[in-house]
Amino acid sequence: MKNFLSVILTILLVNSWSQVLAFDPPSEESKAISLEELQVEQLTNPVGIDLPQPRLSWKINAETRNTQQTSYHVLVATSPDKLTPGEADLWNSGKVNSDQSVQVRYEGKTLQSNTPCYWKVKVWTNQGETEWSEVKYWKQGLLYYKDWWGRWIGFDRTFPGESEEKFPTLGARYFRTEFELDKEIESATAYIIGLGLYEFHLNGQKVGDAVLAPAPTDYVENVKYNAFDVTEMLQSKGDNAIGVALGNGRYFTMRPHYKPYKIKNYGFPKMVFHMEIKFKDGSRKVVYSSDDWKGTADGPIRNNNEYDGEFYDARKEFPGWTKPGFDDSNWLQAEYVQEPRGDFEAQLNENMKVMQEIQPVDITQLDQNRYILDMGQNMVGWIQMKVKGQEGDTVKLRFAESLEEDGELFMANLRDAKVTDTYILKGEGEESWEPKFTYHGFRYVEVSNYPGTPTMDDFVGKMVYDNIQTVGKFLTSNATINQIYQNAWWGIAGNYKGMPVDCPQRNERQPWLGDRAVGAHGENFIFDNSRLYTKWLEDIRRGQKADGCLPDVAPAYWRYYSDNMTWPGTLLMIADMLYLQTGDVKVLEDNYPAMKKWLEYMRDRYMNENYIVTKDSYGDWVVPPPSIEAGTGQNADVKRPSELISTAYYFHFMNMMAKFAKIIGEDQDIPAYLELRDKVGKAFEEEFYNEEGYYGKGKMTDNILPLYFGMVSQEKEQEVFDHIVHTIEVENDGHLSTGLIGTQWLMRTLTKFGRADLAFQLATNRTYPSWGYMLENGATTIWELWHGNVAKASMNSQNHTMLLGDLNLWFYENLAGIQADPKAPGFKQFILDPTFVEDLDHVNASFDSQYGTIGSHWEKRRKSISWEVTVPPNTQAKVKFPVEQLSDIEWDNKVLGELKGIGGLETDPSGKVSVTLGSGSYRFSFPYIQ
Asked: For labeling, which of 18, 59, 527, 704 is most exposed (least CB within 10 Å)?
């Protein structure tokens, strides 16, 4: 995996799976091992880390099977020249006997602000030792508030032509300064907080490749700074210039004075800047924001709004404003403004970036001066346009996800979002333009008033999302599953916006907690998103009120505190996911107090004397109507609160809290959790179980939750599960009937209780309601509603992720069989246990874990299965086979049962035989009877 980064804290010093499959000794040629992809805490920009003890990670590259690290030696120094055991002036770990290769905590000297840190590592393995790795680098950021010399500057007012009405008009703010240098530069680091959004230029060049930076937060709680190494961009002898453009983002919010009881607004755009320059003679210079800077609001970006688009007047451009020598005599003095109150923090999650360019597939003419551009894919980002015309010609680009029957844009589902970019030409030959401070969710673009005849070559789509890597691959023999997976990828990626938002197109785009509670787990197999979700947990707990209640949206841009178990409970489920997938104990330690406080709040406020949790807000959100006819024109924004759901979740969360307490050493809390869990479980049974063999009203979700959460006694499990099966097969004619909540547990429940075939049927249906039904109706992402093609337009986003539920998780953990081991989280040790569904001929999946690529590729061949697995160095895998004995398995054309020294052999309760493997690639075959 490229650009590897983990968030592991757990130190696995003892290998609990001590026996592995034995092999012949490797040849001398095969012993070569090396290190690669050294990382420090942050993926894309290891400059400006504000952690006192960053965690270091590395990967071992070795083809020899069963390669395990036994020791490591880390050196950290303030310069590469000092990276020797005798001179490392920050940390010399010495040879440490440990197999830990991810998130090794820095244990050297106390690091100060702006400290350069060079490091390298060598490791010893059971196959030999490596050479020293290449040298890597990180730089400590500004660790203290007083490290910032700069003061906040901006203009806390509107200018002529601007408005703060319901549909605001506020242009970009531009700030600049110049400074002179006369010495040779050794290093230079620039730190910036530009709110809501910024674009930073130095000597005429944009600094970095981020867009829509920084990551959004609740700015009264915390603000994120970005840091850049700008050493090579400065002129060591001569004049230099800084230029910063500020956009509105979420700071001057999209609807600043509309429903102020609901929507937060923070004020006008503002910035603070600090650049430290160290010279080769040992002296330094600091350049910082002050009222000596110049600023203007009279630039080409006349309006920028996430909902409404960007208005750009090229006639107002000021060429060279980011270069030395620009005449800014007509600009205003920058003004000191109030800071945003939130804590200053280094941004450790990735910024957004243009991640992909997409060519249009068609352009059609609507009338004399209007055209429809088809991108062929519902995407998130914007259009770059080439155009040639007269000064003052005005081109408008309006965006939508689909078309009306007459070919016009379908706009009704966007509510009052204007989603229009406007460009006024300066009339100087061919002009190329794209917006800076907005984005759109769209497949189609209406191009109006374009001078001449536009062609597809005049437009390029820019796909924008967080700069995180795609780490999963998944392909099967079933075309429907493959297309659903692709649709999921596009929807998930497009809705990564420094926070996971619900949708990218209408006047919402909010980070609703309930949408990602379980879906985030499946996403983690597809995207390297651990830093994004770690940041999101901080957003959630910073939104917690003093009494313990948690928001439904975080960052809490909307003041929604509805008090229910399912949406705020995402705090527990995301933390649990990150711990399982990465092994990061710190994520539990950081969030445990907020979890505990919230659960006590819900208990004290909403649990009655019979231990039923009486408060829920949304119920099983967006349950599909019984037929497509019944859903036509229906308003889906209907809340159906359910005490069954809230009580079941409280039971589930008590189990989770007991587990968390054990992991982080809060053992004194465990008895109370277990006691309350048992009381809630007993009350649930008495209140909701029906003697007919089902819970509640017999809905699928009513029965899925207690089954998956372990609330059903063993003697009742089968009858409850049979009721679910009857609901699907008979009442629903082979379809699901779950909403947001039930779908989060649906596929795993069916598989856990032996009906993976039924889960496969739900995954491959192409009739209503199903994911395949969306495909049948032209979807290229995932809809918000099962009946999204006919529902009332006010709530039918065509790019949502919430109805994916546990589908992606089922793809990877069940169909491919790649599973983290709860006993050793983070994939240091993991399980390979595919479900071989009858109607599926092959699955080819991989997941780039923090140790390397895990692969599972199985294929049916007549009456046998051929299975290729890949286990990364310094890990072990428990590989499970649906056979009765080792003699049924062939490995590299050898009968496994005839090999000597087989280790890690087990038979689990389901009758499967498992073998523990060290690193390497393997090919197995075994009989399979359907």
From this structure: 18
Structure tokens at 461: 């789509």
* CA proximity to 915, closest of 845, 834, 833: 833
Take residue 529 and report the two structure tokens written for it.
Answer: 């998103």
Q: Which fold has domain 148-349?
A: Jelly Rolls (2.60.120)
Stretch 105-115: mean pLDDT, rounded?
95
Note whether 442 and 372 are within 8 A (CB): no
Q: How far apart are CA 93 and CA 76, in angstroms?
A: 9
What is the structure's pLDDT at 906? Answer: 78
Can you tell me which residue has the tokens 């002898």? Answer: 237
**28-140 fold:** Immunoglobulin-like (2.60.40)
pLDDT in tens, 593-645: 999 999 999 999 999 999 999 999 999 999 999 999 999 999 999 999 999 99
Q: Which residues, 6 or more positions from 883, have their beta carbon under 8 angstroms from its beta carbon?
A: 889, 912, 913, 926, 927
Residue 565 · residue 654 · CB < 8 Å: no
d(CA 464, CA 507): 18
Nearest to 212 by CA among 195, 194, 198, 200: 198
Domain extent listing, the chain? 28-140, 148-349, 354-465, 472-814, 827-927
> How distant, in Å, are the alpha carbons of 876, 902, 903 from that of 896?
18, 8, 11
Give the C-alpha separation, 91 to 210, whole Å.
32
Proportion of the chain in helix, strand, coil states, percent, rounded to 5: 25, 30, 45
Three-class DSSP labels, 21-90: CCCCCCCHHHHCEEEEEEEECECCCCEEECCCCCEEEEEEEECCCCCCEEEEEEEEECCHHHCCCCCCCC
